[in-house]
Amino acid sequence: MSSVVELRGVWVDFGGHPVLEDITFSAAAGEFVSVVGPNGAGKTTLLKVILGLIRPRRGEVQVFGVPPWKLGKQRARIGYVPQVEEVDPRFPLRVLDVVLMGRYGALGLGRRPGAADRHAAVEALKLVGIAHLAGKPLGELSGGQRQRVFVARALAVKPELLLLDEPTTGIDPAASESFYELLRRIQKTGVTVIMVTHDVGVISRYVDKVACLNRRLVVHGRPEEVMADAALAEMYGCAALFFHHGRAPHMVVRPHSELREGRR
Ligand SMILES: Nc1ncnc2c1ncn2[C@@H]1O[C@H](COP(=O)(O)OP(=O)(O)OP(=O)(O)O)[C@@H](O)[C@H]1O
Ligand SMILES: [Mg+2]
């Protein structure tokens, strides 16, 4: 199987209510896939299923060809950037220490980081373009710089699969775009990237595939296919309009309030 991530007919319940229904989803080696959908659509849940943190009630999940809860040490092949981490401005750790924390999974408990770990951490910081901030306390960074630190932490294990949950929240549009450029550079090194985002209009320029999730997978395909799919409207429970702006497809989503009457 050439897919790094493969879900077939996956159902997840919380408190007796389905949160994910019959999800069939895949990401091939080296692909950049974005997952979009409204709040509560199950996007974070989907990432947790891929990480093996949540086991579905029904269906099959394979990551690197095995169920993710059986990955064991191979879990280190996955880098994870969780949804926004609030950072206390007094947070004492320096950037390099935070990135080194990413190595602990690979190290095993009780082992102290050595020269190779420091090297990997510095390389990860270089890759995300903030090596010069290595000695700064995390609490003194801007939101965008901090997101890069968390990506560096995930990259420090040299993952083959990188999962990111809304990594550009609170980052200005220009910085978001340079962040997507960064992810594309990471992808070019052979890493499979799955990113949850609300940045629907922009990401289509960067990714290979878009998965629109609203409890069910509404559409899953190349950005231009997804753009052409009227089912997108269903995803937001609203009319999603696409138009082409130069060569880059854009999407306009009307506010929920305008369309709520149309919902079930
Ligand atoms: N641990 C949990 N226990 C019970 N319900 C949960 C749990 N985690 C998530 N849910 C519910 O599952 C649904 C999907 O949540 P999830 O966090 O996956 O959504 P999301 O698409 O990531 O939303 P957002 O865009 O707000 O981050 C929501 O209705 C949420 O309330
Ligand atoms: Mg979420």
Could you explain how this protein is built, in words?
This protein has 264 residues and is of the alpha/beta class. The protein has a domain at 86-159. Helix content is 30%, strand content 28%. The strands form three sheets. Strands 5-6-7-3-8-9 form a six-stranded mixed beta sheet, sandwiched between helices. Strands 2-1-4 form a three-stranded antiparallel beta sheet, covered by helices on one side. Helix 2 (95-101) runs parallel beside helix 5 (143-155). The longest helix has 16 residues, at 173-188. It starts with a strand and ends in a 5-residue tail after the last helix. Residues 237-264 have low confidence and may be disordered. The structure holds adenosine-5'-triphosphate and magnesium ion. Residues 14-15, 19, 37, 39-45, 83 line the site of adenosine-5'-triphosphate.
First CA to last CA: what distance? 39 Å
Biggest pleated-sheet summary: 6 strands, mixed
- Structural class assignment: alpha/beta
Query: Which strand order does the major sheet show?
Result: 5-6-7-3-8-9
Question: What average pLDDT do the residues reach?
Answer: 82
| Assembly level | single chain
Enumerate how many helices there are, as a single number.
10
Compute the number of strand runs: 11
* Residues in helix, %: 25-40%
Percentage of β-strand residues: 25-35%
Name the overall outline: globular
Low-pLDDT segments, ≥5 res: 237-264
Order of helices and strands: EEEHEEHHHHEHEHEEHHEEH
Which ligands accompany this protein?
A: adenosine-5'-triphosphate, magnesium ion
Please state the CA-atom Rg, rounded to the nearest Å. 19 Å
